[in-house]
Each structure stands twice: as structure tokens, then as C-alpha cells.
Amino acid sequence: MNSRPPFPSSPPSQPSPYRYLGRGGGERPVRLQIIIALVAGLILVAVPLYLWRRPKPESIPSADAATADAGAYAWDAGALADAGAALAEGVKLSPFTTIKCENPGPGTTPPERCDHVTFFEDALARAIRDNVQCAPSGKASITVSFVFEMDFRRKRTNVYAGKSTTVNRAKTKELLRCVKRAMPTPDWGTIPHQYVKYKINVMATYPASDSF
Mind giving me the DSSP string for 101-136? Predict the structure, then answer.
């Protein structure tokens, strides 16, 4: 009987193809475990450092302190309002009088036949009362004659101190500036009126100052 020829052996210079089977799969779990261990170590070191060095939150003011501050602010606002009201009550205003009113063309209208433009009269009275602190002061009471002009065609107004003012007009500049600034911007098309131009007057009497 013929015997089978032996299988040819692999050349010595070539490694066996089965020698490294499973080697790569063994290295990967080891590397993954090393990476996980390093990350865990960094977390264990970083978290305590952060908790130790983080800034401490500032203390929140108590509700009682906030309530006290709000009460003090309300008291200050109320005191200022009362002081302003006391000053406003100190000034006395005469009834408004119309010096003249006119329309384009010949002829004049007697002042007693002129209509009252209540928008400007009310606004001027309010501006005078709200700006008493701007008025000049003296040992005796002071009277300022406010003359107010309005022109509906040119949409202009003007206010100045009249001849009946009992102090030097130079002393009324600050008062007039305050009153002009407090006057509202008129919506000329909605204000009832019969004439184009008006000149009106109101007398404001301020009490004597206690500082003299």
C-alpha cells in the first residue's frame, strides 16, 4: 500500500498564520481600561478642587431688610410730595384776564368778548404752582405778573414777566425758565379757540421767605 506523502511544512521564515489569532482582541480591552482609569482619576482630583475653590454665594438680604428699605424710600417720596404741595399752596394766583385777542384783518375785539383758551390757562397755572421753588424770595411777599402769548397760525407761545411784577425782572429769569420747561407740548389742531392770537395775564403772589 502506498503511503500518503507528508504535508509540506511551512517555510521557517514565514510565521504560522495561526500564531497571532486573538492577540489584537486582547490588547484593546487593556487599553480601554487604562483610559477609563485615567479619566476617573482626573475626575476624582478635579471635583474636590472645584468644590474647595469655588466662590461662596453672597448672602441674600432678608425680607425684613428689603421691606425696611422700601418703607424708607416711600417715606422720602411722601415727604418730598408733602413739601412740594406745601410750596404750591403758598403761591396765590389771580383769575386769568385776557389782554387781547385778534384775527387777521381790520377791526379789534374788546377783551371782554374774547373766549378763554382753557388748555393754556390750566397748563400755565399748573406750571406756576409746580415750580414755586424757582421763584425769587424776599422779606416781603413777591408778585410776578405772567403774560402769556399764543399764536395758533404760527403755532408759537411766549411767556414773560409783565410790568406789574414787584421785583427786578432779572430775578424772574430762573422762574420763567422753569415755567416754560413745565408747559406741555400743545396739539394745536385739537384746542378749541375762536381767534388766531391771544394775550392773557395771571398774577402770582409768593409769600415772604422765612430765611430773611
Answer: EE-SSS----GGGSPP-HHHHHHHHHHHHTTGGGS-
Helix (H) or strand (E) run with residue 141 in it: none
Distant-in-sequence, close-in-space partners of 117: CB < 8 Å, separation ≥ 6: 150, 191, 192, 193, 198, 200
**Cell, residue 23:** 492577540
Q: Which residues contact 123 (CB under 8 A, 6 or more apart)?
A: 183, 184
Instruction: Determine if residue 13 is left, alpha or beta; phi over 0 gives left, psi from -120 to 50 gives alpha, anything else beta.
Output: alpha
Amino acid at 64: D
Burial class (CB in 10 A: 0-12, 13-18, 19+), 200: buried
**Over its length of 212 residues, how does the chain's per-residue pLDDT go in tens digits?**
555 555 455 455 555 444 444 444 555 667 777 888 777 777 776 666 666 666 555 555 555 555 555 555 444 444 344 444 444 568 999 999 999 999 998 889 999 999 999 999 999 999 999 999 999 988 899 999 999 999 999 999 999 999 999 999 899 999 999 999 999 999 999 999 999 999 999 999 999 987 65
Burial 113-147 (b: 16+ CB within 10 A, else e): ebeebebbbebbbebbbebbebbbbeeeebebbbb
